[in-house]
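User: Hey, quick favor. My workstation is busy. Could you predict this chain's structure for me?
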Amino acid sequence: MTRSPRSASRSTGRQSSATYKPSVPDVPTVTTALARAEPLVSLMQRLEASKRCLEAVRAVLPGALAASVRAGPIDDEGWTLLASNAAVSAKLRQLQPRLMEALLQNGIKVNAIRVRVQTQ
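Assistant: No problem, here it is.
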């Protein structure tokens, strides 16, 4: 009687050199997958543009205020800054002319800056 390689490896307690390895395809990173999906390309571009806007205006924001501000959506109508509370929102509205100037100095053109309080 001949033994199968599987039963032979059980009797000796060693693994057979012909062990089963499942075939797993290369899984792309999320960024790579998004870059390949046509509908999501413009979303990624707008996200990057919003991040560039925030980087440009952080230079003119006081340190404590800058920590309370996040980048929001950007579209044809303008860019949204998200404030952590109403006081930060009010201060950002006062600073809007300086923020627009900072964007222009960095070569970024937006039609308007909207300020919204970010709810948690």
